User: Which sequence fits this backbone?
């Protein structure tokens, strides 16, 4: 069922915005009316903008006392019937991990934005990094699957934030927007369409009346339970404990299997529908560069340079990065000579690519600790070596 | 039965204020025998001593209370203080006024 | 002679509130939490608010399990965090009456920061804190409310930290309603709950309750009944007492009562007031009753 954006939140027009600001605009366009956040460089501008805009749109921004409070206040707001988002960077992302797990377990649709910076620990607050990628996938304890998107421009920051809200409603799962300090702080032209041109996936409210409704019984697509909100007489019980379809805790292995298995499978078994990536010059390529976020823009330049030297190299850029495009990578591994994974860390998505290549082709990593974007010459060097030209 | 002279003087005074005549309360005490955990709160806090712990025990080994409905004034304290939601009194004053069953039947009907 | 049959009810007063299919509950014999739930059931029957509009949010711990037994919209969240969840819920839908029902460790240890700020902001919610002076669910560890010299598994030779005085803390942080009762003071507790639920702003009720399985056992204080008798002998009601005088010592007197009951603008009053003043016509108010209903856009 398709719907379009509520015009109240859509700032239609051509703008000159940075990634943080366009993320806030994306949230407003998607219908987000509650943001709870805590200041942390380089993400603060997102909540600042949302806080400045929301009073004239209708909604709430609250600066909570810490990231832990922010990451659960948004879930309270979702259960009151609103769409909600929180925004942070590395250290705050670490603090939010428990509540990402709570949102997964309680199937609370919400969006968490991580504007990555140099880490670990306090690291480089004002400089970029991409070293939270595995944390995005595995950061909370226990078994779970999650969805994460990865914009590489302020325009994409707008578009993919809207997409993140849509995915979270469709799959009743928290969705992570993995920005980085560069995309967050770079200013570019952002075109915000008219409200009726922005597709919104509406909340999957239950069709069941109170009494017949089971909060964790799949109602949509065979996987997703219908959503309700507090105050409508459903008297639902939501808990982070392993629970049955009624939402009642059941402390046994059978319930763990039914409950958690569905949470994992609802993403895993739909991965091919969720995955999204952009391919450039892949047809006929011997080498594929895999890059995401700001790094993909530098890698693109390196790819073009290599092509000018006659190397048949293309690029695969995931925009939905979790689930990772496994099917596609596995298929490409059989056709290519090598993958060159370029990321602003010492190897994170690289290990996914290596795993999926399964030895059928080479895998090379061009990584560094962050603080600045890659030098395209360094990426070019590895591409040329992989092509046997150096 | 209460002292007749005292009762009638109270009634005299009550009539002057339009207050309904006091009447003896009859109540039935209902106990969830299997749900009781024998904590003894109700026994201790009953203002008329209408409860005492039984010598028998339930499936979990606890000793639920034994009620004495004659003493019960339907104050509702046992119902509020019971942490197991397993005891309450029911005012049966009017319905019992036409031929009461004997005390033993009331005891037997009290357990669920 | 009235003709109507006078059987006033055929069930326990708490039954409409409880998820009967989940009883018997997990609390120990002699635990005071069930008694507080009776007070809550009684208060809900008296407070005049429809049950659909009441939401209960709890954290982790024995008292946190209350959310699972009440037949209301109930949320069993993470340890220490029911208050920020309740903030989101209460602000998101100001028509809801949000009750946070959790234990002393959950609310003032790990949750201390959130408690402070929600009270400071005067977000409309009622916090019912059942204080048993210990971490019961995990086996009896020391809590910030454990009296000095009392033993706990992580204070095996007696606690040497000064405990929090919860009414003092609540008042200092800005709560508009502060009361303390014990599990024995069931009618006072019920009345306090009715007042607190109907009050705008952040209300706090501390209910001192027995933990026979760990606190009383480790400290040789008897069982739950012995604790209730202790409360009866050693508690004193002093409504309006200065909250700094309400410290609890091990085996010492417990001062109960209603200590704070004042009016103050809530978070939403302040938010709407300030933004209206600055933005004038451009401001879209939140949660403010208007001619068409409560102003609150829901996507």
Assistant:
């Amino acid at each position: 069922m398709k719907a379009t954006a509520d015009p109240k939140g859509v700032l239609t027009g051509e703008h000159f915005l940075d990634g943080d600001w366009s993320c806030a605009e994306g949230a407003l366009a998607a219908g987000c009316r509650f943001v709870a956040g805590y200041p942390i460089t380089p993400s603060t501008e997102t909540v600042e903008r949302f806080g400045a805009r929301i009073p004239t749109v209708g909604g709430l921004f609250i600066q909570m006392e810490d990231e832990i409070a922010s990451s659960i206040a948004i879930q309270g707001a979702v259960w009151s019937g609103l769409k909600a988002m929180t925004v942070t960077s590395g250290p705050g992302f670490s603090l939010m991990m428990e509540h990402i797990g709570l949102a997964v377990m309680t199937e609370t649709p919400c969006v968490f934005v991580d504007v990555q910076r140099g880490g670990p620990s306090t690291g480089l607050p004002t400089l970029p990094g991409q070293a939270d990628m595995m944390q995005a996938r595995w950061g909370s304890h226990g078994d779970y699957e999650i969805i994460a998107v990865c914009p590489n421009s302020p325009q994409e920051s707008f578009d993919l934030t809207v997409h993140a809200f849509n995915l979270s409603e469709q799959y009743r799962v928290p969705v992570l927007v993995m920005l980085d300090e560069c995309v967050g702080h770079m200013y570019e032209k952002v075109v915000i369409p008219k409200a009726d041109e922005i597709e919104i996936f509406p909340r999957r409210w239950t069709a069941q009346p109170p009494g017949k409704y089971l909060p964790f019984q799949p109602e949509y697509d065979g996987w997703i339970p219908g959503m309700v909100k507090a105050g409508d007489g459903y008297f639902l019980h939501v808990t982070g404990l392993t629970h049955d379809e009624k939402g009642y805790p059941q402390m046994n292995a059978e319930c763990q299997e039914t409950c958690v298995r569905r949470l994992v499978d609802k993403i895993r078994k739909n991965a091919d529908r969720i995955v999204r990536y952009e391919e450039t010059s892949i047809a006929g390529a011997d080498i594929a560069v895999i890059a995401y976020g700001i790094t993909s823009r530098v890698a693109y330049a390196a790819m073009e340079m290599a092509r000018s030297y006659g190397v048949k190299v293309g690029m695969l850029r995931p925009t939905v990065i979790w689930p990772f495009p496994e099917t596609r990578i596995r298929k490409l591994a059989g056709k290519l000579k090598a993958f060159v994974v370029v990321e602003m860390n010492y190897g994170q998505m690289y290990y996914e690519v290596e795993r999926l290549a399964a030895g059928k082709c080479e895998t090379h990593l061009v990584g560094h600790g962050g603080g600045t974007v890659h030098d395209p010459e360094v990426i070019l060097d590895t591409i040329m070596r992989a092509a046997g030209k150096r | 039965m209460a002292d007749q002279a005292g009762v009638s003087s109270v009634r005299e005074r009550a009539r002057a204020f339009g207050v309904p005549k006091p009447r003896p309360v009859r109540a039935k005490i209902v106990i969830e025998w299997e749900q009781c955990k024998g904590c003894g709160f109700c026994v201790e806090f009953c203002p008329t001593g209408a409860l005492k712990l039984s010598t028998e025990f339930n499936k979990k080994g606890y000793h639920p209370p034994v009620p004495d409905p004659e003493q019960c004034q339907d104050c509702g304290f046992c119902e509020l203080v019971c942490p197991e939601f397993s005891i309450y009194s029911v005012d049966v004053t009017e319905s019992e006024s036409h031929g009461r069953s004997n005390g033993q039947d009331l005891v037997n009907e009290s357990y669920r | 002679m009235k003709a109507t049959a006078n059987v006033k009810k055929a069930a326990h007063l708490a039954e409409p509130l409880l998820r009967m299919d989940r009883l018997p509950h997990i609390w120990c014999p002699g635990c005071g939490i069930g008694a507080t739930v009776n007070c809550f059931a009684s208060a809900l029957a008296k407070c005049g608010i429809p049950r659909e509009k009441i939401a209960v949010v709890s954290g982790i711990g024995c008292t946190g399990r209350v959310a699972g037994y009440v037949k209301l919209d109930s949320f069993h969240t993470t340890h220490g965090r029911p208050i920020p969840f309740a903030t989101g819920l209460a602000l998101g839908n100001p028509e809801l009456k949000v009750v946070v029902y959790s234990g002393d460790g959950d609310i003032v240890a790990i949750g201390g920061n959130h408690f402070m700020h929600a009270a400071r902001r005067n977000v409309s919610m009622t916090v019912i804190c059942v204080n048993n002076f210990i971490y019961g669910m995990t086996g009896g560890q020391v809590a910030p409310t454990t009296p000095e010299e009392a033993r706990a598994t992580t204070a095996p030779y007696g606690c040497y930290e000064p405990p929090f005085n919860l009414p003092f803390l609540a008042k200092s942080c800005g709560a508009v309603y502060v009361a303390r009762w014990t599990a024995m003071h069931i009618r006072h507790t019920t009345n306090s709950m009715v007042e607190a639920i109907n009050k705008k702003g952040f209300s706090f009720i501390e209910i001192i309750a027995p933990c026979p399985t760990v606190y009383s056992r480790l400290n040789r204080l008897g069982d739950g009944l012995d604790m209730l008798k202790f409360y009866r002998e050693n508690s004193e009601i002093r409504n309006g007492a200065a909250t700094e005088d309400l410290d609890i010592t091990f085996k010492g007197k417990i001062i109960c009562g209603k200590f704070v009951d004042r009016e103050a603008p809530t978070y939403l009053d302040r938010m709407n007031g300030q933004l209206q003043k600055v933005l004038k016509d451009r401001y879209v108010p939140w949660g403010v009753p208007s001619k068409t209903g409560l102003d609150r856009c829901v996507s």
Chain B has one domain: 25-109.
